[in-house]
Structure formats: C-alpha cells, structure tokens
Description:
Chains A, B, C: Belongs to the transferase hexapeptide repeat family. LpxD subfamily. The structure is a homotrimer of 366-residue chains. By secondary structure, chain A is α/β, with parallel strands linked by helices.
Amino acid sequence: MAQTVETIARALAARAEGDISLPIEGASEPQSAGPKQIALAMSEKYIPGLAQGKALAAILPEGTDWQGLGLKAAIFVARPRLAMAGLSKAFDPGPEIAPGIHPTAVIDPTAEIGAGAAIGPFVVIGRGVRIGEGARIAAHACISEDVKIGEQALVLQGVKIGARVVIGDRFIAQPGAVIGSDGFSFVTPEKSGVEEIRETLGQRDTIKEQSWTRIHSLGTVVIGDDVELGANVCIDRGTVRATMIGSGTKLDNLVHVGHNVQVGRDCLLCGQVGIAGSSRIGDRVVMGGQCGVNDNIFVGDDVIAGGATKIFTNAPAGRVLLGYPAVKMETHVEAWKNIRRLPRLFAQMAELRETVTNLTQKKGTE
Amino acid sequence: MAQTVETIARALAARAEGDISLPIEGASEPQSAGPKQIALAMSEKYIPGLAQGKALAAILPEGTDWQGLGLKAAIFVARPRLAMAGLSKAFDPGPEIAPGIHPTAVIDPTAEIGAGAAIGPFVVIGRGVRIGEGARIAAHACISEDVKIGEQALVLQGVKIGARVVIGDRFIAQPGAVIGSDGFSFVTPEKSGVEEIRETLGQRDTIKEQSWTRIHSLGTVVIGDDVELGANVCIDRGTVRATMIGSGTKLDNLVHVGHNVQVGRDCLLCGQVGIAGSSRIGDRVVMGGQCGVNDNIFVGDDVIAGGATKIFTNAPAGRVLLGYPAVKMETHVEAWKNIRRLPRLFAQMAELRETVTNLTQKKGTE
Amino acid sequence: MAQTVETIARALAARAEGDISLPIEGASEPQSAGPKQIALAMSEKYIPGLAQGKALAAILPEGTDWQGLGLKAAIFVARPRLAMAGLSKAFDPGPEIAPGIHPTAVIDPTAEIGAGAAIGPFVVIGRGVRIGEGARIAAHACISEDVKIGEQALVLQGVKIGARVVIGDRFIAQPGAVIGSDGFSFVTPEKSGVEEIRETLGQRDTIKEQSWTRIHSLGTVVIGDDVELGANVCIDRGTVRATMIGSGTKLDNLVHVGHNVQVGRDCLLCGQVGIAGSSRIGDRVVMGGQCGVNDNIFVGDDVIAGGATKIFTNAPAGRVLLGYPAVKMETHVEAWKNIRRLPRLFAQMAELRETVTNLTQKKGTE
C-alpha cells in the first residue's frame, strides 16, 4: 500500500501534475491534512481549507491553480464521489484477520475452503460448506451446513449464515448480519382476523380466539455477486422457493427482508428498510431509510422511494415515491401544501356561508 | 423422515387418493418439482404449473381431477396454508446441531440441562441456569446466570439471554436475538424538556441544560410457552417488575420491546415493530411491519394494526388501525381520499367566492 | 451490597424516619414486596398497594403518614424517578463476569488492559487495543485493532467494535451492538437517478442502467464519556473524518447511526431511531422511537421529536417536532384535526354551491 501521487492518479484513472513521485500515506480533509496525506478538495468549497492544513498534494476540480495554492502536486477529477471510491479503496487497510485458519475455529472436515483464506477466532463452519478463494472470515462468524459462498468474500464479526444459503462472488457482510433465519409465517386453523379484514378493508363480524401454527421455511436464500449487507441485517429464508437478492444490490444496517422476497439487481436499500414476505422488488430500485414494503406486492424497476415511504400497493417502474401511504413524490408534496392551507379554507368557508346566508335572507325579506 | 404420500396425508389429517405408497423426499412448487417431490398446487392458480414439472403426486384443492393431470397420487386439502404448516414441519430438517455438548462450550457446573440436549460450539451457559429436556442450542449462544428455559427449546446462533430471564416450553429464538438487555430509562435531576412538553403539548418556557442519570433495570423478562422470536429481536428487562411476553406470541425480525412492556397471548408482531416502555398489548393483537406503540399506553385485545401504524393513544379492543397517527382503518382510507380531493375543493372555493362576490356586487348596484 | 434503610437513604440523599437500621435486600412494587424488601410507593397511587404487600419499609412522597400505614421505617423523596435512579443502582447486581481474563479469550499480546478487568469467555481483543481500568467485557465481545476505551467500561455479550474506534469513560454497550461498521456509501460512474430527483424534486428525464461502486470508510467512530448504546445498535464509521457521539448521549435498542453523523452531548435517541449519513444532531436532542433524520441535514440543540417523526429538513434549536414530514408538534395536531373536519367541509361546500346556484338562477329568472 505504499502510494505516490502517481499511483493514486492511476488508480483513479485521473490526470496528475507536479511532483508525481511524492509519497502519500493517507487521505484527509484539507484543513487537517498532514504533509504525507493527500488533501480531498474535490469541490470548490473545500479549497480554502488547504491553507489551514499541511498537505503538499491535493485532489482538485479541473482547472484549479494548484501552484498558486502552494502545492507540489495535484490530481484532477471530474466526478468527485467517483474519485472518492477509488481513493478510499486504495487507502482502506481493511479489517485485520490473520492469514490462515485460527486454531480456535471449528471447521467441519467436509468443508472446502479456497486458497488464501483468512479465518478468525471462534469461527464455526459446518458440514459440506464450500467457500471460494480469498475469503476473509472474521471472529465469531457462523456458516451453517451446505452453504456455498463465491470468491473474495468478506464476512465480518458474528455474521450468521443459515443452512443451504447460496452466495456469489465478492460478498461483503458487516458484523451481526443474519442470512437465512426462518420466515415469519403462521396460520390459524380457521380464517384469521387478518385475512378477514384484508377482504373487508376493516370490517369485522365477530372476533374469535385464535392461535398460530408455524409454517416452517424449507426454502433458502440465494444472493448474487457483488452484494453487500449492513450490520445486523436480517434476511429470512423462503417457504418453498428461495428468497433472492440480485447481483450488485446493497443493503444498509438493520434492513429486514422477509421470506420469499425477490430483490432485483443493483438496488440500494438504506438503513432500517423492511420488505414484507413474498414481495418483489425490481432492478435498480433505491429506497431511503426506514421505507417499508407491504407483503405480496410488486415494486417496479428504477423506483426511487424517499425516506420512510410506506409502499402498500404495486408501484409501476420508474415511479418516484414518498409518504405514508406512498404516492408520487410531487403528489405528496402537494398534499401537505394543501393540508397547510386548510385553516385558510375553513375561514373562507365560514365567511362565505355568512355572506350567502345574508344574501338568502335579504332575498327572503325583499 | 422417509415419507410417502400416505404419511404426509396422515400428518396433514387429509384425504389421499391413488398410489399412496409413493415415496416423497421433499416438496416443491409445481413447475420445478422433481419426480420424488410432492407438488404444492393447493389453489387453482398453481395447477397449470404441474404440466411443466415432473411431480407424480400433488396437494390439490378438493375436487380436482388428479388423474386427468397425469398424476399417480393426490392429497386433498381444504385450507391450503394450514396444510402448508403440517407439510413444512414434516420436511424441515432443522438446523444441524450435533447431539450432546460440544467440547468448546463453557457451561457452569451448577447449570442443569435436561436430557437429550444438543449444544453447539462456543456456547456459554452461566451459574444456576436450568434448561428443560430436548434443548437445541446453536453456536455462540449465551445464557446468563439463573435463566430458566422450558422443554424443547431451539436457541439459534448468537442469541443472548440475560440474567434471571424465565422462558416457557417450545421456545424458538432466531439468530442474534437479545432477551433481557437493560431498559432505556433515564432521569434528569430536574423536570426535563420531555416531561414539560408532555404536559403542555409542545410549549416550552425556557430550555435548560440537562444530563441523564440511569435508572438500572432490576426486573427481568418472563416469556410464556410457544413463543418465537425473530432474528436480532431485542427485549429489555423491566425496571422493577418483569417485561412479559404471553404464550403463543410470535415476534418477527428486529422487533423492539421496551422495559416493563406486557404483551398478551397469541400476538403477532411483524418485522421492525417497536413497543415503547411500560405499554400493555392485549391478547391476539396483530401488528404489521414497522408499527410503533407509544410508551405507557394500552392496546386492547384483538386489535389489528396495518403496516407502519403509529399508535399514540390507548386503542380499544377489536379496533382495526392504520396510519400516523393511528386511526380506524376506514377513517385513514377516507382521510387520504379527502386529501386527494383537496385541489378540487380549492378550485370550487375560488369559483364560488367569485360567483358570490358578483352576486353581492350586483346586489349592491341594484 | 448489604443495605439498610439508612444506607439507601444516604445513597438517595434523602431523609429517613423510623428504624433506619432495618436490613433491606431488594426493592419491589408495594403489593408484592416481602418483609426484607423496600416498597416503591413514591407517588400517591401506589400507597394502597402497601396493604397487600409485606414490606416493613417504603419510599414515600413527602408528608405521608408512614406509621399509620403500619410501616417500621420510611424514606421520603421529592422526585420519584430520580430516587429510582439511585435505588436501582444500589440494588443492581450487574451481569456476572468473573474477575480476570477467561482462559478462552483471545487477546493480542500488544493489547493493554487496565487493572481490575473482568473478561469473559471467547472474547477477542486485537492488536494495539488499549482499555482503561475496571473494564467488564462479557462473552463473545470483539474489540478490533487499535481501539481505545476509557475506564469502567461495560461491554456486553457479542458487542463488536471495529478498528481504531475511540471511546471515553464509563461506556456501556448492550448485547449485539456494532460500532464501526462500514458506511453505506456508493457512487455511480455517471449521475444517478437519486442525484437527479434531488435536483428536480421527482422529475426524471430518462432512466439509465446504473450499478454501484463502493466508497470505503477510512474514518472511524469517536464516542465521548458516559455514553450508553442499546442492544443491536449500529454505528457506521466515517468516510474520512469520524462519526461522533457526544458525551452523555444514550442510544436505545436497534438505533442506526450512518457514516459521518455528528450526535451532540446528552441526547436521547429512543428505540429504532435512524440517522442518515452526514447529518448533525445538536446537544440535548431527544427523539422518540422510530424517528428518522434525512442525510446531510442539521437538527438544532434541544430539539424534541415525538415518536416516528421523520425529519427531512434542517430543524432550528428548541423546536418540538412531530409527523411525517416533521412539522411543529402543534401544527401536526392541528393538521390532523383539520383533516378530520374535511367531510363536514365537503358537505358545506356541496350545500353552499347548491344555494348559490339557486340564487344565481333566481337572479337570472327575475
């Protein structure tokens, strides 16, 4: 990880000027950068901070006069956040997991683990597990029987993967994530109150005693390539078929994915999103934090839902949603504008009724 | 677990026809079923799928012409989801936890563990713990001092049970569940801003500096029989008395139950529901995902709350709720219909005011 | 922990009367108190319960006639919840973690652990970690390389602390909390749909395929003194600078704090609150359960937000908020009053239109 301005520029596919052999040991915000750190001043507003810091090199917007800023070298980028991706990758030391298998790990002799693995203390790997090359598995992770994981996996502390789960390449799971817990699926011997109100939209004839019988989850979870799961995420296994997470999809911390759910490719589900059982989410769907999706519905490709949107019914592809219940974002904004105008409307109504009453009475007495 | 059409029909208390000795190794959706799997075609819409799969036997709605579908045997059920419960139980292999106590487990010598236990690697069981017969405790579970658990418990990976928690028979805890964490209870030396606005509904005289002193949780958690907790569920212990979860109640993933809460019998709390401290939930209450219950309130028996309903005040028994703030489901549906009609109302008001102004002016000039 | 009425009164800085040498082994609600327990009857409504219980001593509101209640001793308090803090601290046995380092713990030889530590089974402590005096670290906790923790820490079962996190004195982390998971930060090579709708408030020209490139988290998490984290809380590390949690702040179960977030001092964030990336929360902010804060916004000092408030835009200091979207609490209450009055408004409008139409027609036919 010994870097210079030149190696960083190459990693970013960006143009560098000045003393490109300058050694760089890390990245920092401009105002707190030391002389061996590259300052992140990718947009205009960060440039004044350079004067307070000690950086000799910086990442700058195209066209910046780096020499005038007293720098010895500069890298120019067009799309700052994209540059940040390359730069952060170059400098991320990653979690320290010693190469090889820690002596305390309990690994079933039938498990096959690819070359180059680093497996931490107290890891448990079950019967028939197959893990690809280059896996890094941190302390206290549990990988149950017959799980398959692709190459270059990073499974962090205390992640629990249930039996028969299948995962693609370059998988990342943050600490505490649970994949393959049993689905939340229960049935009453007779029609339940919930089934009744779904048919009647809230009317209930008589309320009966009822208790719940468990429907076991025979299915599993199938996860594509390049998927990342946040800390303490929970993904339930399917009842008969598998719960699916498409390639390229990223789940933030504390996201809940119910049984039988199908999430498409390249989706982003932000913190604390919940998807109820058997719903289907298209490709490239983005949900802000705390969104909720009802069970057994469909959310089309490219839907974007603002924070805490609660989606109760099918959403067509490309729709931008907000609110509880979810409506088009513009409809929601308009609705609350209208709600805030209500006091004036009530006043106008009162005034108008008085005027009209006067008119009518005058009429009557004419 | 060697099954035939006959043994499955018996497990479902259902009627079978045809070659009931046919061996069955698993269940599948009709279109992907192999010749040794029973096809799940319990409602009409799944029947066309049988032609694409290879199943020789199927579970069908009463009256279906199974011979005409080319099957060798059939089982007939009246309530498909109930059949699914029996069927899934018959075929669920369950998690593999080797019988006996894994040599790496750390078990206090004073703990009493019933016959037939299977205890996985790195499990920790504390002083004075008592666990009934037939317990299955998976890797990394932690059971603290003086906990009591009934018979046939299934405690999955990384579940943490705090001191003195008492749990009934047939308990199931999915991975990562935490039972008996300390309550979130803090007090300021003088009246806090929160106490003030609760009394004044939002008015604040002066804002004072304040810091928080912890109220420790001396109580515990008491859980009835046949309770199931989802992955990463959190249940706090009570302050003085116990937090209670009634028999037959099921909690989905990431549900939060605050200190002193009383949840009744046979409730379903879906994913990410949160119940704030000291509230009481009646029997047979069903809450959709992401519902929230305010602290110190009461939700009556048989209440059903739709997804993400936020319950701020007491809810009478049998009420069907929706919305933020929670109102009767029909009221909520009506409210949003009315909100969507507001643009027309504004237009009518503008038009009417103009008409009336004209009338008034005409009047004046008559 | 052998207590008497006298020692308890002293711990509460409260006045005692009667036989203050009476030994006390615990605290209880009045109706279930035994003769060696002190009854908690700090407000009038609990006093009748004393007759059902067997307590010889009670904590009472000032001025209560304790002798008339048949008690042998009494402690008088002015602010009951504050008394409860002192009392519960006096009687909390805390979790049992044996003094010293459990032989199964895996501790890097370069780690420095202060005097008086109690470290449980299967704990993992990484390279260069420094932990202050009096630490109690329960089973399965993971503390990664270069973490610093102050004095008197209580780190409970299965807590995972990522590399380079810095934590102050008297830290408490309930089971399963994750500190220092990677931030949820991704970028598309070209402008994404999310960036587009943020600029256009929902309008989208063309929808493009897009996939996500990871921005690694180089920053860490810095936590002040006297911070408590609930069970399964998740706090992400910063991208370049640190995510910060100020001294005295308490987070309840399942709270999510995104990357780069700055939370001030003495805040309370109740169960399942979520703070999206790069937002700043002032000092003494209180958020009810399930509140959400948008990314990149600012919530001022002393803001109080009711349960499930969704804060989308900057909130000025001292504001009391409620609703989705968050508005002043009084505005929200008023809004829903108005919404409930809409049916009457629609009826009035219909009636008025008819009256005016009649007036107009009469006019026309005069």
